[in-house]
Amino acid sequence: MTPLLSIRDLRTYFHTEAGVAKSVDGVSFDIGEGETVGIVGESGCGKSVTALSILRLIQPPGRIERGSRIEFEGKDLVTLDDDAMREIRGNRISMIFQEPMSALNPVFSVGDQVAEVMRIHGGVSRRQAWDRAVETLALTGIPSPEERAKQYPHQLSGGMRQRVLIAMALIMKPALIIADEPTTALDVTIQAQILDLLMHLQKEFGTSILMITHDLGVIAETTSRVIVMYAGEIVEEANASELFARPHHPYTEGLMHSMPHIGRDTERLNVIPGTVPAPTNWPQGCRFFERCPYSWDRPEHEHPPLYDVGANHTSRCHLAVEPQHRNQPHEPVVVREGVGAA
Amino acid sequence: MSTAAINKPTPDSGQLLSVRNLRKEFPIKRGIFSRQVGSLKAVNDVSLDIEPGETLGVVGESGCGKTTTGRTILRLLEPTSGDITFEGKDVRALDRGELRALRRQMQIIFQDPVSSLNPRMTVGAIIREGLTIHKLAEGTAADSRVRQLLQEVGLRAEYANRYPHEFSGGQRQRIGIARALSVEPRFIVCDEPVSALDVSVQAQVINLLEDLQREHNLTYMFIAHDLSVVEHIADRVAVMYLGKIVELATSDDLYREPLMPYTQALLSAVPVADPKARKQRIILEGDVPSPASPPPGCVFHPRCHHPAKDVACMKIVPPLEEKTPGHFAACIKQPPTTVSWEQQKEVGGVHPPERYLPLAAVHA
């Protein structure tokens, strides 16, 4: 079966005065029909730039480099002309942004904004578009949607605004929804409502979802396959259950251990010392080398490929072929050099 | 802690900080003459004690009043009414000079490490300011104190000559911590100190706060919306909803057996980083009501899922009462309660109180 979305060697670079920032540097992955894939990573790892690249929303000085391929429903989105791309954006692929206030226009009613998507792509009358907007708002669990549709963004709570954005993303029944930190700005009880809604809608319509988040909890509860990004690259990919049970890459392991868990009291949190290197100057070997507790001379000089480390499980770490180094954890290089404080 | 928490403090209670019946109301003004048409009860009758050396966590969602509580205690905001006693001194009775002296003892670390540091001052000058104001050190003595503070929070001494924008979020938060520490306080209000940070950086800052607490015998009020962070760092936890403390217990008790239905829902909503975890989730309906017009009776009743919820919950304001030793909750349907079944029936109650612990199986 061909995947719905197939990304090969995606490189999105920002050509700034300070140098070329290789924010996304050779990323490849697939999303199948009806699948929920998560991308997890910290600020600056390239997860949001990956999402924006798929929708071709990269602004200069940013650029998708030649040789990158993003295949979606038989088309290469990298080389598609602007008109054809507009046909896909909001129609076949839609996006839910993190900040529901800034993603909505304050001077139009929310019903108009949801209906606008339908009018642009659906070739329907104003009246039909409005009716569909109200229907879709109802689907997202907004109470009394007829009245709510006439209201303006400032009259709605954060959770309600996020539901409006979901309605906008959903109204064209897209094949793929990209959700970029869809619940980060929300309180935890509202987050639970929204995640619940997304999962329910996905089951109902069979939409594929690319869930981008820094929160491993959100990943564990919503996705079936997980991609871990670090310094512009995929460092690990596996099924969710496999990844959480057997993380292979030292960065994934560090991320999991540095999170406090309810009901699992630890005296001291594990930390990943140091900070992410600058995207204008990635290290030539393993990009996690300086912060890694298992590092040895090979990763310092040799950039690791993605190794197969299990069934549908890959990891960008030389431990895959020299596992003995895992038995000798030591102070990472950044700590020895006294620059461990992030 | 004993039931005394709800009564007036006794002079020898041994608490570092005692807060009684604290209220903070903001006027709501309308029209061209700014006529006051109502008031927003941001903090609505909050009482709590903090012992020397402990960490009291305060959790709740946006608008619950947790930040306002912290700032009102420090008198960064003037309380509307209530008592605040710090080391036996009545904080509300202090004049400007006395208040300044007290600020040496009580410090704050802010959430946003970008806007809380003056971009035009060097890191050294930022940390030095407190030393100068409180006349703790000057000249080369102040310089060496600044270097020592920077090292203590895990930064290099040379960083004193740099400006805030040259640092990452985590490093800036360390600068904010060094500034708070510079005046050797006893008590620090940490207002969402790690919320803006990435997970791995967050862990570094939490560990630092814990180390500093041990070394300097600090007392923390740790305000956060992230329940797992609070469980990790706090000895006791207060849960706030619409300006009120609705549950207060040791961290162990609160997370093992939350009694207030709101706390149960809040805990069940936290995503668990384990795909195999069996989870029972209580999804709350709707949003938090506006603090300008809180619901009558129990402020949580419109969203409550307790099976015995009835009209009595709309009529009776539930007292924050001790349910098991040291475990306080504000719910007249969760036994034992001082609001008797007879009293509840009088106002139209139909369901007698019953023990309701929907998460017991999950967290066991």
H-E order of chain A: EEEHEEEHEHHHHEHEHEEHHHEEH
Low-pLDDT runs of chain B:
1-12
Q: Helix tally of chain B?
A: 12
Helix residue percentage of chain A? 25-40%
CATH topology of the largest domain in chain B: Rossmann fold
CATH architecture designation of the largest domain in chain A: 3-Layer(aba) Sandwich
Describe the main β-sheet of chain B briefly. 8 strands, mixed
The span between the termini of chain A is: 45 Å
Q: How much of the residues of chain A is beta strand, in percent?
A: 15-25%
Q: Provide the gyration radius of chain B in Å.
A: 22 Å
**Average pLDDT taken over every residue of chain A:** 92
Structural class of chain A: alpha/beta
Assembly category = heterodimer
- The strand line-up of the biggest sheet of chain A is 7-8-9-3-10-11-13-12
Strand content range of chain B: 15-25%
Would you kindly provide a written description of the structure presented here, covering whatever features stand out?
The complex is a heterodimer of chains A (342) and B (364). Chain A is an alpha/beta fold. Chain A is built from 12 helices and 13 strands. Chain A has helices at residues 47-54, 82-88, 110-122, 126-139, 145-149, 158-170, 188-205, 216-222, 240-245, 250-258, 297-301, 333-336, and strands at 5-16, 19-31, 36-40, 62-64, 69-72, 75-76, 93-96, 176-180, 208-213, 225-230, 233-239, 307-310, 313-315. In chain A, the strands form 2 sheets. In chain A, strands 7-8-9-3-10-11-13-12 form an 8-stranded mixed beta sheet, with helices on both faces. In chain A, strands 1, 2, 4, 5 and 6 form a 5-stranded antiparallel beta sheet that branches. In chain A, a hairpin with a 2-residue loop joins β5 (69-72) and β6. In chain B, strands 6-7-8-3-9-10-12-11 form an 8-stranded mixed beta sheet, with helices on both faces. Chain B has a 4-stranded antiparallel beta sheet with strand order 2-1-4-5. In chain B, α3 runs parallel beside α5 (169-181). The two termini of chain B are 25 Å apart. Chain B folds into 2 domains: 14-28 and 37-241, 3-Layer(aba) Sandwich (Rossmann fold); 260-363, no CATH class. In chain B, β4 (81-86) and β5 form a beta hairpin. Chain B has helices spanning 66-73, 96-103, 123-133, 139-152, 169-181, 199-216, 227-233, 251-256, 261-269, 311-315, 341-346, 360-363, and strands at residues 17-30, 35-50, 55-59, 81-86, 89-90, 106-109, 187-191, 219-224, 236-241, 244-250, 321-324, 327-329. Chain B is α/β, with parallel strands linked by helices and 364 residues long. At the A-B interface, α6, α7, α8, α9 and α10 of A face α5, α6, α7 and α9 of B.
